[in-house]
Amino acid sequence: MSTTTRTTDPSAPDPEIAAVIHQIISEHAASGHPQEGRLDRELWGTLAAAGLTRITGSEDRGGSGAGWPEAAALIQECARHGALVPVVENDLLAGWLLDQISAPDDDATRTVAIVDAAGAADDVAWAGGTDRVVLLWQHDGTWQLADVATHDLTVTAAAELSDAPCGHVRVDLATLAGQPVPGHLLEELCLRWTWARSLQVSAALEAALDSAVRHTTERVQFGRPLARFQAVQHLVADMAVEAGLARVAATAALVEVVRSGFTADASRFAIAAAASCVGHASSTVVRQAHQVHGAMGTTREHDLHLVTRPVLRWRNDPFPVRHWDRVLAELAVAQGPDGLWPLVTDGLAPRLPIT
To answer: Which of 94, 263, 268, 277 could join 112 via S-S bond, C-beta 3.0 to 4.6 A?
Structure first.
């Protein structure tokens, strides 16, 4: 990418990488969708061959060494097309954690789970659908990390809103040889996690909006397109406003991450604000997308559910929307009248309940 492009728009990915990502995922989506509840091995293999399954990993550890704009492009393209691949979990979360302890490289698929003192973690995204799970737990006040094969865990299927695998994980911690890791890694993990979910939600909301616009302009009732009815126009306009807000908030968080990394105050504040914005926007967009599509929008044969159902999970993972609302409100109140504007422009770090 040219220096000019990076300077004028720090969120813009390398155009060649973005084009490859779009071509791979859009062409695969056009060929049909895999069976629900399973990793799309065909798409995953294609992404791996293109060096995209560890897009942010360092090149000396088998990654592609790409930047955050390229990672965001991959995350959002997958979300936009309802792709059943764990790009966030495998690269930004589990892969990054293993990089921090210089664990051996391999081609296994991974997700991540934070387990409690009893060795339990519920509703773990992709648990049971990947080869391995990177586990984190506390022992005597120290965080421990272990990379465990899925077949060495007890994983039971959990109710899941999207078609991606999800499971309850159980493990006997006494059988694990954990490696100590500093607590700040947990904080950055949660920030990465929240940031990626915001990107996924914003992209999926835009896809839902695009589908609504397409449907209302093509579908004819009572002699005219649905888009000519004022009530329908209002629904779609509300969707456009909320999806636009989600996109701007997610992009602002991306810009801060590109500038300062994940743990700078401005980045942490932007990530928290993005999580709150996309979470609330999703309520309006998902509800009204299905409303304007009518009965066909509730069927499995229609693609709308591929982008709306995952949103309802992503917006509350790893923390619920109400958490971000609360911490942002507490920050605003704590600043007082004179500090509110500096808070908005400069940001402050919200607290993260990682224990």
So the answer is: 94
